Amino acid sequence: MDKRVPRVLMGKPGLCGHDRGIMLVIMALRDAGMEVIYSGRHNSPEQLVDIAVQEDVDVLGVSILSGAHMALCARIAERLKEQGAGDIVLLAGGFIPPEDIPALKALGVREVFTEGARLDDVVAFVRRASEERLPA
Amino acid sequence: MLREDLKVAEAAWRGRHAAELADAAATPARCEDGLPLKVVYTPLDLEDGSADVAGFPGEFPYTRGNDATGYRRKLWTISHYAGFGSPRETNVLFRKMIDHGGVPPYMALDLPTQLGLDPDDPMAAGEVGLTGTSIASLRDWETIFDGIALESTFVGTVINAPAAVILAMHIVLAQKQGADLAKVRGNLQNDILKEFTARGNFIFPVAPSLRLVTDTVEYCARHLPSFWPLNVTGGHFAEAGADRVHEVAFAFADAFTYIERLLERGVPIDAFARNMFFLMKTNHFDLFEEAAKFRAMRRIWATRLRDRYGARDPESLKCKVLGHSGGSQMTRERPELNIARTTLACLAGALGGIQLIGLRTMDEVFGIPTEKSEMIAIGTQHVVAHETGVPDVVDPLGGSYYVESLTREFEARVQAELDRIESEGGVVRAIETGSIRREIARDAYEAQRAVERGDKVKVGVNKYRIDEVEPPRRPYKLDPAEEGRRVEDVRAVRRERDNATAMAALEELRRVARMPEGSDSNLMGPIIEAVRAYATMGEICGALKDVFGEYVERGRV
Fold first, then answer.
1. What is the CATH number for A84?
2. Under a CB-based contact definition with an 8 Å cutoff, are residues A49 and A122 in contact?
3. Could you give the strand order of the β-sheet that contains B105-107, starting from the edge strand earlier in sequence?
4. Which of A62, B76, B248, B518 is 20 to 30 A from B501 via CA?
């Protein structure tokens, strides 16, 4: 049986323009054979969720280095619920102080990868999360 | 020793140490950008006479330094990037920094300001004051510089897309203070091209963005001769992951694009090139290549400016560099080691003979730094400057077989990249095709994979890890009520000003923006009048968006 190819939307919500991290993850996920859409920079949280729903992705990965992660992730999680898309796995990365991670997870962010994370760990997480969402 | 004798002697030396040399060759060393390194360099590596080509300091091609006597004449300037969320806190910080050894402020701004949005814009929600100071109108500039004389204070500002608006605030406040504009010193970053290819803080499409840069530089050339309106930043390429050759090549490609626009505008090269400078990384890894990078930059710049653009003023031919240690080189693991990294980064810049140095703090990887760590970063520079003796001799690495050879090789690689970019249609074309972004991403990916494989050691990360019990401290935390106060501040400005004057100034700005670009339609004049009338950052950028539209980034990578 063919394995389902995970579909991922990677996005930069808010105003932060630094995209080194997100580009690394995009390349690693593609190297691992996944379908990855990139939103480009300066998206509102609502825009990102709407694209994620339209594209029916398994995982929505967001990268934020500006310090606005709490406010932005809260809006994304809320919009996902409003759209009945709470099953889309929300993944956050970027410049996030360790003590904020529990609060992000309480909002509904499934996993947080920060500076120093290994690409192989990110790829493994996305694969696992996608399979759990829709088993092949 | 004659060259023939030297060849014989070196061959004999190789023979005596053949086994060791073979061992070393089995694990080849190379710089991160791929430049292969020999085990040892000898006079034979300089047989083309490149040590002679380097010449003397203070003279063309300035490889050995901009000044004949180097840091004996003037130590590098200690620069420090800082800025708190509110204009009032920033004022307190700047006064303290100026008192503390005259360290000039190098201002960090928040993202809404950098994107031309007022604090009450919906896209600004949650982002006000986070990455630096929030500036919405002239009133904020007046608060930040309350009690600080602009005629005698160098003010650096990291502002790009709305740089013209910040420059206008500086000019209007200087006028209000009664300052002589000819003496006002400071800088804007104003390097919009790298926002499209690396940093991401763009507003308008590429063509009007370039017009704004040309307008600001032209205006300063005519009215603010001591001001540095354009700080071309290779450092953001490096932070985005570009290797060292790309860092320099992309920065020069951007710089030459601006120069060519200004020359087309009819601004003489020697009227503005002297006030251009570069912000580059000064990093601790591949330390000798870093020093060689700065030497090579000076030679490339001087040669191009003289031979291609006809510059004659020695100040135009001197490539001036502000080196910042890279945040991406700092680690959360064993964060105190970041002080060691920045010490070496400072050394690399000093050995390279650059003009200004700024170091990241050890705790910046956790958030906005604490005051204590800011003082450590400044003190680190004081140690390098006053305890090592490094500043005593100009270009201390000059004549080193190794460093001269690296300098020559580095220059050749950068030149090859510049030629490639030019042959592919230049930087504007490269923004359209995404080629520069792809190159940077590829470099970053290779570097990251090298760390994950363990090929590139990061102490505390992939080697010498210590699992620490002490939890990382949270440095500065912005008061969550600040955003609301900033929203109220900007609304008060709109309420209290003479609204008809502000609206008329914005309409005039739109009118001039609709004209074809040129000296007669330079946007600085109308932007200054809009600022003077307390039109806000969001209103001024909004008026320009009405005419220019906005840049839409394509997601495909």
1. 3.40.50.280
2. no
3. B186-188, B155-157, B105-107, B77-82, B356-358, B321-324, B276-281, B230-233
4. B518
In angstroms, rounded to a whole number, what is the distance separating the alpha carbons of residues B77 and B373? 19
The pLDDT, as a whole number, for residue B49 is 60
> Quick check: helix, strand or coil at residue A9?
strand
| pLDDT of amino acid A97 | 86
| Banded model confidence at residue A1, pLDDT cuts 50, 70, 90 | very low
Q: What is the pLDDT of residue B65?
A: 97
Question: In this structure, which CATH number among 3.20.20.240, 3.40.47.10, 3.40.50.720, 3.10.20.90 belongs to the domain B52-453?
Answer: 3.20.20.240
The count of other CB atoms within 10 Å of the CB of residue B310 is 12
Confidence of residue B51 (pLDDT cuts 50, 70, 90): low
* Residue A2, in any domain of the structure: no
Record: contact B126-A14, CB cut-off 8 A: yes
Return d(Cα B557, Cα B550) in angstroms, integer. 20
- Would you call B112 and A15 a contact, using CB atoms and an 8 Å cutoff? yes
Backbone angles phi, psi at B16, to 5 degrees: -70, -25
Asked if A39 contacts A51 with a C-beta cutoff of 8 angstroms, the reply is yes
With respect to residue A87, please indicate whether it lies within any of the assigned structural domains: yes
* Domain segments of chain B as ranges: 52-453
- pLDDT at B79 (0 to 100): 80
Taking a contact as any Cβ pair under 8 Å apart, which residues of chain B between 13 and 52 contact chain A?
none
H or E element, residue B108: none
Chain A CB contacts of B127 below 8 Å: 14-15, 66-68, 71
The pair phi, psi for residue B472, each rounded to 5°, is -65, 140
A-proximal residues of B, 472-491, CB under 8 Å? 472, 474, 478
A71 domain residue, yes or no: yes
| Residues comprising chain B, all counted | 557
pLDDT of res. B261: 98
Gap from A2 CA to chain B (nearest CA, Å): 27
Q: How far is B329 from chain A (nearest CA, A)?
A: 11
Of B201, B452, B553, the CB nearest to A120: B452
Short-list B251, B235, B115, B112, CA closest to B193: B251
- What ipTM did this prediction achieve? 0.90
Of B127, B333, B367, the CB nearest to A68: B127
- CB distance B123–A66 less than 8 Å? no
Smallest Cα distance from B379 to chain A, Å? 26
Residues of A in contact with B332 (CB under 8 A): 114-116
Report the relative pairing of strands B77-82 and B36-37 from DSSP bridges. unpaired
Minimal Cβ distance to A18: which of B125, B200, B557: B200
Q: Is residue A1 part of a domain?
A: no
Q: Which domain holds residue A98?
A: 7-133
Which B residues, 450 through 469, put their C-beta within 8 Å of a C-beta on chain A? 452, 461
Counted domains in chain A: 1
